[in-house]
Amino acid sequence: MSREGQSEDPRMVIWFDIDNTLYSASTKISHAMGERIHAYFVSMGLQEEEASGLHLKYYIQYGLALRGLMHHHEIDPLEFDRKCDGTLPLEDLIRPDPGLRKLFEDLDRTKVRVWALTNAYKNHANRVLNILNIRDQIEGLVFCDYERPNFTCKPEADFYRNAMMQAGISDPSKCLFVDDSKQNVISAKELGWGRCAHFYEAGLQTMEGGKAKTLGQNGDATAGTDGIVVINNLEELRFVWPDIFSK
Ligand SMILES: [Mg+2]
């Protein structure tokens, strides 16, 4: 039973991460994000090296640099968001993707509800979905609520549990999940999410915590992890989970 006391929707929910999942890491958007976060640290009066060190430290410790900034420096998270994600030239980096739209259109909505699950704030999430021309394909968006003190994010279990509450789904085995982060996928699996796909573009560069890394190095693959499929193109979902597509 849902919170409203009505029967729960029997369909599964497929959750899509947004950044570096619905578009490729080859866009280098994560680099542009990293540069802006670095500039924010420097604007607080830190030297370049100090800024890089603290950025990485907070990323590792809190999952998001912003949470460390809020905890230790009492910064305004919405100002941070405006200055970092808000200034990304996304319109120059990504464009509507007809193939991606078709993939979403072909999902069988009698079987799955389609939600997005992001560590970004809602402004950035909606902006990306609108530019990709799939906003109307996403029924619900769970984002990091920067306006709440002590907000959670992936890969923390509470973030996933809260997402399920928002979507009104109580059975974790009915959750399907696609994300480019190994740790995010493993956390979902540990919570019992039924099917998880690690979107993994080996060989491409991304940036995490202000540090560039090449995918495929340092054990970031989930190959061989029980119950997790690895895909390097979202089209592969049609083959690994054929039952949720109508064509
Ligand atoms: Mg991602």
UniProtKB/TrEMBL annotation:
Top-level taxonomic group: Eukaryota
Pfam families tied to this protein: Hydrolase
Alphabetical list of InterPro entries matching this protein: HAD-like_sf (IPR036412), HAD-SF_hydro_IA (IPR006439), HAD_sf (IPR023214), Pyr-5-nucltdase (IPR010237), SSM1_domain (IPR052791)
Entry GO MF terms: nucleotidase activity
Gene Ontology annotations of biological process type: nucleotide catabolic process; pyrimidine nucleobase metabolic process
Cited SUPFAM superfamilies: HAD-like
PANTHER family in the record: PHOSPHATE METABOLISM PROTEIN 8-RELATED
NCBIfam families: HAD-SF-IA-v3, Pyr-5-nucltdase
Protein name, per record: Pyrimidine 5-nucleotidase
UniProt organism field: Scleroderma citrinum Foug A
